[in-house]
Request: fold
Amino acid sequence: MRRSLGIGIIGAGFIGPVHARAARLAGGNLVGVVGSSPGRTRRLATEFGTDPAVASAEDLIAHPQVDVIHICTPNHLHVPLAEAALRAGKHVVCEKPLAVEASGAARLVRLADEAGRVAVVPFVYRFYPTVREAREMARRGDLGAVRLIHGTYLQDWLSDAADYSWRVDAALGGASRAFADIGSHWCDLVEFVTGQRITRLTARLSTALAERRRTAGAAFTTRGGSGPVASVDTEDIAVVLFETDGGAVGTVTVSQVSPGRKNRLWFEVDGSAAAVAFSQEEPERLWVGGRDSSMLLTRGSPANSEASRRFDRLPAGHPQGYLDCFEAFVSDAYRAIAGEEPEGLPRFADGWRSVRITEAVLASARRGDWREVEPCGAP
Ligand SMILES: NC(=O)c1ccc[n+]([C@@H]2O[C@H](COP(=O)([O-])OP(=O)(O)OC[C@H]3O[C@@H](n4cnc5c(N)ncnc54)[C@H](O)[C@@H]3O)[C@@H](O)[C@H]2O)c1
Reply:
């Protein structure tokens, strides 16, 4: 019998435990979980029932039973940790943004190719069955010619000057915050659904809060920081106007300071024959717009395409959500390691492209001009 894949996770704040759960559900053997200090790592070994001898990221990467390293740390650590894991011959699941600079992302794509390892980025919103259905509609031509792609990704957890996270600090999160953190998901998703690439864009960034009180709190729960005041060098809001290689135009508004909006990733694709809209907070339904009548398409309906039904874990009417997407993503990553080629698996090349889009947004916002998004050829 083949042994199950050995899994190591680095970083255990919000998303690390989500990876751990998905890894176990996908049949992985969780060998170790590493936190930000040896003490924290010891406590994590007890919490997750993993190897107590693992004391650091280096130990975990060198561990003979570990086949796959999941990187769930702040952004500035993604490249060095992924590089170390690939050089040690491990497969890598690395959180987005893959890198804080496109050159680092390109290096990782090259390293993964040379090492012949599977290297993937959790653009997990691709794994909602309704997103796959929207993609099928675009592929089959149900939408006609795509004319307009628009939407938002809005959150409110950084609305107040007492809200803080390492994400705010460019040295840890990267020069772009709101766009790299969540706008990256939106762009990946609409490119995935439409099959079109964003080729040119013009962006405006706004830092609504020039100063914040530092706290050590975890993401999304930072309210009430009482630490020293720090000046902020990353954006709270990004507004982007773009063109695609398929002749469409589009806009996206990204914000982490929109009161009441928790995780409103919403997009609409308007074609010559029909439109389709998806909202991450209500992911069981797709709105399909027509000139004469419109409808709500339900996940799990027998009429849905095989491409979406592959991700149905439950019958219609039993809601699936974000954790199911994560499990589906990790399952597909492990299938790829086993030699299969799962459709729509986001690889390091997709992570690299995403960092390129972020760099175009930053460059455009600095000068107030239009920028080409450099295509990612050979790394
Ligand atoms: N794909 C998604 O949907 C998704 C969702 C949330 C976060 N993320 C990404 O995941 C990463 C982590 O985000 P988060 O929300 O979990 O942040 P978080 O602050 O909740 O957790 C990060 C953890 O990493 C730990 N850490 C810091 N330095 C470390 C080190 N050297 N070694 C080990 N651990 C270290 C911190 O102590 C913290 O517990 C980010 O890159 C973020 O963009 C992706």
